[in-house]
Write a structure and sequence with these properties.
heterodimer; A: Cyclin A, domain 1; two-stranded antiparallel ribbon; 2 strands; disordered N terminus; B: alpha/beta; 6-stranded mixed beta sheet
């Protein structure tokens, strides 16, 4: 009922939702947008539930009156409770918001009730008293126990008894199949019997409880179930999928889990008493070491459970501590596992402490059996099952995740282990829990996870690396404020995911998990040995549960036991350890008839031998499964390698292309070079030709020059001849003129002509000499120049 | 004449080829690293991650169930960037059964203990052994003594941490998520010790 207090939390400094849970700042805006929708939905479902409950109450009038009859044996303030609850339902959510004066007080009361265990004890009726004089003040029946410890217990409201009955019958049926769990627990906890003589009473009590509730009512129920309860059941399912109203949630959940049938009077109190005794004594045996460990871990985790939640004050956290410690006592095969603190915390926010304990027991022992134990086997199995379902439903998405190297279990593991707490918004968590607790199995876990993948798969496919994919999915899941969409997608979209299907898949995958666990156990023997009784007990419960009790008498007939031991080589050491630890506590009351024992042990021996044979067979099976797994693993590795190689090939191709380009360029250059060479060659040839032509010319010129020189020489000769002729002529003429001496003018003319001739010859002579001296060491060209000048 | 110069240009391109491959293999400059944090419950694994990624410290952080994921990219002085994909695992002993899921294929493991708790130090040693047995053989391991701000309550000597780390060829550092002491240094040092693809 303390959930009423949630309304007052708006002015808390950190951002919190209407349940008092912390909101991530980045989602605060989204939350505000949705809070209106939530309110509308809440109003609607309050109406629906009210009319449903009224209708059911009418239709099952006989059975509920019968129920009241039983209730009257333990008188209580049912009527008053009924009245307040009907009031509350009528007011619906509006009373939450507008909180009239009356409800305000009620809220404060209920807050106090959760918080102030000891203080309020004065107001409460003592457990066994049937007077119930202060019922009017208190809705909760409480039990006062030694050391001022007050446990609170409230009966489920009558308007929910119809639901309660259906659900309780489920618990009973389950119990029959599972061999009476609580009884089994009592056997496994001999210290309870020793330290608490009361326990014997409570055990009888419980058996009575089971009997009285079991035989007559069961039959009645079975008679009614098919004709009358079928349609309400369907309707209830629809209602649950639409969400349980906030005000009813605590009690409806208890009804779903079957708290009334589970509860054993005084059991919780005894557990606590036992816990406080053993925590004071400083025992050093294996079991108290384990308890010490859990106690330490619980102590560490209590402040880290919904830190800062306003309803979990000091007293609230004391309740949390007691609940967790009591559970560890109740089921040492689980003890305490992180995540359980959150579940217990949530339950304590919704219901009184002992109710929360029994709800918690139902969830962990039944719904999540094997999940939170030392080896966490079932939770590992579920991950493999989920992965297979993912591959079946979303092959593309899984392919993409494979490609990125993301394992589905990385993400879904925490989802499953925390039952989505702290993973999706609270409204959605509670809606998922509504359905999960109603259905009584883990189907809703799978459906919800699949729905989340359906909603966010398309976005995931666009991611480029593992980190981005996981970050995106985490943040998208955290923003799943549309709780109705989530629940409807889960419930409508995955009808084929049924408990039967899951069981089948679990059977298929369990061997591989067990193999790995065993492998680890074998390797880490040293480490494991330091572990407490719990893990031993666990392994016993899972392979040899009945053996434990049956083995006790063998202390008497040791011989046979020895034979047994040799048959069970692998387990014997374990048994020894277990027996030793049990010996500390166990008492051998009276020795039964030895001969009977021998016969019985022989039978048992046969049975064990057979079991061994089947175990061997199964081991072989497991081996093949392992080989397959390894193959798969190899395949994964290989595909990764192939990818790597492909990338390498791509790189090399690129390099090759570049090389080719370079080669082409080189070729071009070479070609150009060749061309150039050709050009130069041509030029050379032409130059040579030129040279030849020039040589020829030189030759020609030389010849001409020679000719010219020869002709000059001839001319000189001729000149000389002409000179001599001229002299001779002159001599002759002078001789004649002497003789004539008259014509003076004529000889003057002749001299002038001669002078000219001589001058030309002299000039020519000088030139010829210089030309000859040059021609000896000059190029033909210069010679030819001279020649030309000469010409 | 022109041909000679063009050949020289070709040569320089050829020399440049391995460089260009370094650039082309962008991953040599931008590393992606899977990192897993292991260690006893309550030693501050989540706080270290939150301090490193968001720069925040919450003295009342909540219990980690299963594992949680965060990523953060840092730039080194040689202009390479390293993107850490950080898996922060649950500390309780029984969650060790799930740990292989997270440390398998991790390039870096950060094993954390609380300097005020000798138990957590021996738990750290368990993790180191487990990683040596089952982790990838070239995993880079760091041993981190957290809560260094609680020096007056110290119960694990610095030298013990150093010695153990040295024996197991690990990198050792003491940090405080509360005061942010050595948190960035831790991740930077890890980044420096990563094997580079270009070196291979």
């Amino acid at each position: 009922m303390s959930h009423f207090t949630f309304n007052h939390l708006h002015n808390f400094h950190s951002i919190r939702d209407s349940y008092g849970f912390a909101l991530r700042p980045q989602f605060a805006q989204r939350y505000r947008e949705y809070s209106l929708i939530y309110k509308e939905e809440e109003d609607e479902r309050s109406d629906k539930w009210r009319s449903f409950l009224e209708q059911v109450a009418k239709s099952s009038q006989p059975s509920s009156s019968e129920n009241k009859h039983i209730d009257r044996l333990k008188p209580e303030g049912n009527e008053i409770i009924e009245k307040t609850i009907v009031d509350r339902v009528r007011k619906g959510d509006s009373s939450d918001r507008n909180s009239s004066e009356g409800t305000e007080v009620e809220e404060d009361n209920s807050l106090g009730r959760v918080g102030e265990g000891d203080d309020s004890s004065g107001n409460k009726s003592v457990s066994d008293s049937s007077t119930g004089n202060n019922i009017g003040k208190e809705q909760h029946r409480s039990e006062e126990i030694k050391k001022h410890k007050v446990q609170q217990w409230a009966e489920i409201m009558p308007s929910l008894t119809a639901i309660d009955k259906i659900m309780c019958s489920r618990v009973k049926n389950g119990k029959n199949v599972k061999g009476e769990k609580i009884n089994g627990n009592n056997n496994r906890l001999p210290s309870i019997e020793e330290s608490e003589p009361v326990e014997g009473v409570s055990k009888e009590d419980m058996q009575e409880h089971v009997c009285t509730n079991g035989t007559p009512e069961d039959n009645a129920l079975q008679d009614q179930e098919s004709p009358e309860f079928f349609s309400p059941w369907k309707e209830l399912e629809t209602l649950v999928q639409g969400g349980v109203p906030k005000d009813l949630r605590g009690e409806v959940w208890q009804a779903f889990v079957g708290v009334r049938t589970r509860r054993v009077e005084n059991y919780y109190v005894d557990l606590l008493a036992q816990e406080s005794i053993s925590s004071e004594s400083k025992d050093q045996d294996a079991s108290s070491v384990a308890f010490g460990k859990w106690r330490k871990q619980i102590e560490k985790d209590i402040p880290r459970t919904f830190p800062g939640h306003p309803a979990l004050d000091e007293h609230g956290r004391d309740s949390l501590r007691r609940l967790l410690l009591a559970y560890a006592r109740h089921n040492p095969s689980v003890g305490y596992c992180q995540a359980m603190n959150f579940f217990a915390g949530l339950l304590l926010l919704l219901m009184p402490e002992e109710n929360a304990f029994w709800t918690f027991v139902g969830i962990i022992d039944d719904y999540f059996e094997g999940y939170y134990t030392e080896e966490m086997i079932e939770s590992q199995v579920d991950q493999l099952v989920f992965e297979e379902l993912m591959r079946e439903r979303f092959p593309k998405l899984v392919n993409h995740l494979d490609y990125l190297g993301v394992q589905v279990a990385w993400i879904s593991g925490p989802w499953f282990l925390s039952i989505f707490m702290n993973m999706i918004p609270w409204e959605s968590v509670l809606r998922v829990w509504d359905v999960l607790l109603f259905e009584g199995n883990r189907v809703m876990l799978f459906r919800t996870a699949l729905a989340l993948m359906e909603l966010y798969g398309p976005a995931l496919v666009t991611t480029k690396d593992a980190g981005d994919a996981i970050t995106l999915l985490q943040s998208l899941a955290g923003s799943t404020f549309d709780s109705s969409q989530l629940v409807f997608t889960a419930c409508m979209g995955y009808l084929a995911v049924t408990e039967a299907r899951l069981q089948e898949l679990r059977e298929k995958h369990r061997p591989s998990v067990l193999d790995v666990v065993e492998e680890r156990a074998r390797k880490g023997r040293v480490w494991k040995d330091s572990k407490g009784l719990a893990s031993k007990l666990y392994s016993f419960k899972h392979d040899q549960a009945p053996l434990v009790e049956e083995r006790k008498p063998t202390e008497g007939g040791g011989m046979v036991a020895d034979e047994d031991k040799s048959e069970l080589e692998s387990r014997s050491s374990n048994i020894d350890e277990l027996l030793n630890s049990l010996n500390v506590d166990s008492e051998l009351d009276a020795l039964p008839d030895v001969q009977d024992q021998v016969v019985w042990l022989k039978v048992e021996l046969c049975r064990l031998l057979e079991e061994k044979r089947s175990a061997v067979l199964r081991a072989e099976e497991l081996e093949t499964a392992l080989v397959e797994m390894v193959k798969e693993d190899n395949r994964l590795q290989l595909s990764a390698r192939v990818e790597e190689l492909e990338q390498e090939v791509a790189e090399l191709n690129e390099a090759l292309a570049e090389n080719k380009e370079q080669e082409a360029a080189m070729l071009q250059v070479l070609m150009r070079l060749e061309q150039d060479q050709k050009v130069t060659e041509d030029a050379r040839r032409r130059a040579e030709q030129d040279l030849a032509a020039q040589k020829y010319e030189v030759h020609v010129l030389q010849e001409k020059y020679d000719n010219a020189v020869a002709s000059i020489a001839e001319m000189q000769k001729r000149v000389v001849v002409a000179e001599s002729v001229l002299e001779a002529t002159l001599q002759y003429e002078s001789g004649q003129s002497k003789a004539l001496s008259s014509p003076r003018a004529a000889p003057a003319k002749k001299t002038g002509l001669l002078n000219f001739g001589l001058g030309w010859r002299d000039r020519n002579k000088g030139k010829q000499e210089s030309g000859e001296s040059l021609s000896n060491n000059s190029t033909p060209r210069e010679e030819s120049n001279n020649k030309e000048q000469d010409r | 004449m022109g041909c000679a110069s063009s050949i020289a240009a070709r040569d320089s391109r050829q020399l440049g080829f391995p460089n260009s491959e370094n650039d082309g293999g962008h991953d040599a400059k931008n590393l992606r690293v899977k990192l897993v944090l292991l260690g006893d419950s309550g030693v501050g694994k989540s706080c270290i991650v939150l301090r490193f990624v968001r720069g925040q410290f919450d003295p009342t952080s909540k219990v980690t169930v299963g594992a949680s994921f965060l990523s953060q990219t840092i730039a080194l002085q040689d202009s390479t960037t390293v993107k850490f994909e950080i898996w922060d695992t649950a500390g309780q002993e029984r969650y060790a059964a799930l740990a292989p899921l997270y440390y398998r294929g991790a390039a870096v493991a950060v094993v954390v203990y609380d300097i005020t708790s000798p138990d957590s130090f021996s738990k750290a040693q368990y993790w180191v052994k487990e990683l040596q047995k089952h982790g990838s053989p070239d995993i880079v391991m760091a041993l981190v003594g957290n809560k260094a701000d609680l020096n007056e309550k110290r119960e694990v000597a610095v030298q013990d941490g150093i010695d153990y780390a040295e024996k197991n060829r690990m990198f050792f550092i003491e940090t405080s998520a509360k005061t942010a002491d050595n948190i960035n240094e831790l991740f930077e040092e890890i980044a420096k010790r990563l094997p580079r693809p270009s070196a291979s």
